[in-house]
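Collaboration report, partner site 2.

Our partner group contributed sequences for two proteins of shared interest, and the home lab folded both. The records are reproduced in the order in which they were received, starting with the first partner submission.
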Amino acid sequence: MTKKTINAIETKAHLLDCALTLFAEKGYAATSVRDIIQDAGVTQPTLYYHFADKSDLFIQLVKHHYGESQQKLIDAIASADGIRDRLMAMAAGSFAFSNQDPRIPRLLFQTYFGPPTPVVVKILDKLTKARFDLVVSVMTLGIDSGELRQNDPRFLALSFCCLIDQPINLFSRKPNPKKYLTQELADATVSLFLNGTVRASPTTR
């Protein structure tokens, strides 16, 4: 590999890293190309050498990080046995991914709930659908095995996603998310989903 090629790879990685920080702080719509090149310390032609435009940069950024997370979740679920272990793989895996680089969940939440941009909404919808469909497949397995009561697997998936995504949204904004997004929280979240909070009434004879 030539020095020129190495420099190009490093420059592209630097642009992606700077863009990740800005998108996480400001969202996609509020971040301009000028913001990115100023933060990266490069010229505009340099950015356009690596990316077609701002949306191309964003898509490559999200696909790389989100795709990596999705594959790890698929692998973890495939190696788990039973509904509790599969849900733990999903919860703990999602927390671990967020702890690895909190800018990524901040970027997703900041952008998804910011001013709508069609090209961005399209890619985010596609990626979040893939994750949601994965959770639906886990719920379907749980229902088919008799571990979960008969219910709409999509409703169960939505409920579970809300339980794990809200802490990610909240705690990824904290200075030290690892303090909050722990294995213990993942376990408590799965227990809450599976067992609920209502104390069972004593059986009358």
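Second partner submission, folded after the first:
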Amino acid sequence: MRTSVLALGLSILFLTVSFTSQPAYSADSSSPKGDIMFTASDAIRKSGFPLSNAVEADGWVFLSGALGSVPGQGLVPGGIEPETRQTMENIKALLAAQGLGMDRVVKCTVMLADMAEWPAFNTVYAEFFEGNYPARSAFGVNGLAANARVEVECLARR
């Protein structure tokens, strides 16, 4: 129960974040605490969710979980493949706002609503990396926010 509540909170985060040509994240939405930098979008701060979109500590960048949603529109239609593609685009945008690319991702955790969709997920996921794939864990869950099929969280190194 506790895991699904946490997944719900992290997943809702990406239903409210805007990934447009104007970065949803910028230096002015970051707050340092010692050598740790917390980055929260305006949407997250206004929502009152107790989390950050990204936290950087000692060159490590921890990203909150991402869903295949488009702000104001919800989840992309079509199932696991379109949702995976949008999820990875959302991660790519969040990394870009941190000044990083997908090549800096070292670990991903994947949550799937149905492990039978693992092959379809892998096909799309692989498109976002060039040869060097991050370490990865995956597990099936008993539901994700907004009836999502997939959620991915990542760890990157500056």
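Feedback sent to the partner group on the second submission included the following. The radius of gyration is 15 Å. The domain at 2-157 is CATH 3.30.1330.40 (60s Ribosomal Protein L30; Chain: A;).
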